[in-house]
Every structure is written in C-alpha cells, then in structure tokens.
Amino acid sequence: MKEENMKKYQEQLENLVLGRTYELMETNKKLQQEIMERRRAEETIKELNDILQRRVLELDHTNKELESFNFSVSHDLRNYLRGIDGFSLALLEDYSDQLDERGKEYLHNIRQAARCMERYIQDLVNLSKGNLFQLFFEEIDLSNLVEEIAKELQRLEPGRKARFIITPGLAATGDKQLLRIALENLLDNAWKFTGKQPETLIEFGITRNRNVEAFFLRDNGAGFDMAYREKLFQPFQRMHALAEFPGTGIGLATVQRIIRRHGGDIWAQGGVGKGAMFYFTLK
Ligand SMILES: Nc1ncnc2c1ncn2[C@@H]1O[C@H](COP(=O)(O)OP(=O)(O)OP(=O)(O)O)[C@@H](O)[C@H]1O
Ligand SMILES: [Mg+2]
C-alpha cells in the first residue's frame, strides 16, 4: 500500500514536471519569438536611422550648395553693378563737358539705382543667412553692439541732432554675427523713421512685458498703424511710402528670422506719429 502511494506520488510528480517543462518550452518559444521581433524592429530602426542620416547629409549638402550659390550669384551681380556704377561715374567725370544737365541727372539716377540694387542684394543675402547659417553661440554685450551701430549711424549723418539712451551692460547668449545684423536692421529703422523729427531719440533697454523680460528699442519717429503690426515682419511689406522713407521691406523679416533662430520672439508697438517700440526676447 505504501509502495502504491509512492508510485502514485511519483507519477504525479512526473506529470507535474512534464507540465512545467511543457510550459517552459512554450514560454521559451514565445521569448524566442519576441527576441526575433525585437531584432527585426531593431533592424528597421537601424535602417530608418540610416535613411535619416543620409537625409541629414543630403540636406546639409543642399544647404552648403545653396549657400555657395547665393554667394556666387550675389558676388557676380554685385560685380556687374559695380561696372554700371563705375562707368556711369567715368562718364560723369571724363565727359562732363559733353553732357548737358539732363544727361548728368540721368547718370546720377543710374548710379542711385545701382546702389539701391546693391543694398537690395545685400538684404537678400542677409535674409538667407538668417535661415542657413549654423549658429555660433557666445556671450554678447548687446549694449556695446547697439552703441557701436549708433555711433556709425551718427558718423554717417553728423549734422543730425540725435540722442541715444542705451542701458549699459545688457548681455545675452547668441550668435554675434546674426545678432549684429538684427540690431543693425532695428536701429536702421529707428534712425530712418525718426529722420523727420527735430531731434531723434532712440532708447535701448530691457523691460518686463507680457510677463517676460524683453529687450526693447524705442524711437520717437513716424510710428505705424497697430492694425498692421504683424504685417511689418513679412518680407516686402512696408507701411510707409517709398518717397517718404526708402527701403525694400526686408529688414524686419530678417530680424524675425534671426530672433526665432535664437528661440526668441519679436513684436512691435506703436502708433501713427507716436514713435515705435520693438521688443525681442532671446532664449
Ligand atoms: N521704427 C519704425 N518706425 C515706424 N515704422 C517702422 C519702424 N520699423 C519698421 N517700420 C515699418 O515696417 C516696415 C518694414 O520694415 P523693414 O525694416 O522690414 O523694411 P524697410 O525699412 O522699409 O526696408 P529695408 O529694411 O529692407 O531697407 C517699414 O517699411 C515701416 O513701414
Ligand atoms: Mg528696415
């Protein structure tokens, strides 16, 4: 009886072991399947990564090509323009006695148009730079930059009565070359649109607006209608007549691109005849 019990017990045990072995085999099979699936997924990820890597390289290559294309086109166009300007000047200087006043005026107009076009090309190059260039971040004294640009503006028009109030030591991290282009454009505007005031007043500082710390550039110039405050930043959009204030309308589009490339934002406030204020943040 005892032996019979033992046998039964052994059989039960064997069945149990068999069952467990079967379960283990099943689990093993599932695991193998999972490993296979994972390997396949890994391979797919690797393939996708390779494709992505290739795309990045292609994009980089296209960017570089576009950059050099931009460079050579603007370089060539400028050379032709310099030719037009130079020969017009030569005509004015060497054949002045054979030209009447009207002829001379035409030549002046040709030179003026050549210079406008040269600036236009520079603006377009700057606009594309804002997009393509890789940023090189460093600590920058924005107040110094503003000071330098202001001095240059005043140097070019020494007769103009102007006052710059610049809060000293305002620093930021950013790409110096691009931020210089941005500030040049903002100051260029402030200088241009205050040109008809008896005294130009331009202020650079920092303020808390919309609950964020923002740099600002304020002027006491012609101002603009707030209804168009978004439009200002679109390429070739201008709120003032060309005859009154010259320009191509690309400056602020460039500034916005540059600020956004820095993870920041720019917005404007103003009123007709009440001056303008441009705010910007940098991450
Ligand atoms: N400080 C400002 N005061 C008043 N209006 C401004 C000021 N800055 C910009 N604007 C308005 O926004 C428009 C777009 O400015 P933006 O700098 O893009 O072009 P622009 O100065 O006319 O030409 P560009 O900068 O290409 O020579 C200007 O034509 C003007 O109507
Ligand atoms: Mg401008």
Question: How would you portray this structure in words?
Answer:
With 283 residues, this protein is α+β, with helices and mostly antiparallel strands. It has two domains: 1-134; 137-280, Histidine kinase-like ATPase, C-terminal domain (Heat Shock Protein 90, 2-Layer Sandwich). Helix content is 60%, strand content 15%. The protein contains five helices and seven strands; from the N terminus they run ααβαββαββαββ. The protein has helices spanning 2-94, 101-132, 142-156, 176-193, 251-261, and strands at 137-141, 162-166, 171-175, 200-209, 212-219, 266-270, 276-280. The strands form two sheets. A five-stranded mixed sheet has the order 2-4-5-7-6. Strands 1-3 form a two-stranded antiparallel sheet. Strand 6 and strand 7 (276-280) form a beta hairpin. Helix 2 (101-132) runs parallel beside helix 5 (251-261), helix 3 crosses helix 4 and helix 4 runs antiparallel to helix 5. The radius of gyration is 34 Å and the shape is elongated. The mean pLDDT is 90. Residues 123, 185, 189-190, 193, 219, 221-224, 232, 238-240, 247-253, 276 line the site of adenosine-5'-triphosphate (ATP). Adenosine-5'-triphosphate is lined by residues 123, 185, 189-190, 193, 219, 221-224, 232, 238-240, 247-253, 276.
Outline the biggest β-sheet.
5 strands, mixed
Tell me how many strands there are. 7
Bound molecules: adenosine-5'-triphosphate, magnesium ion
- What distance separates the N and C termini? 87 Å
Q: The CATH topology of the largest domain, please? A: Heat Shock Protein 90
Mean pLDDT: 90
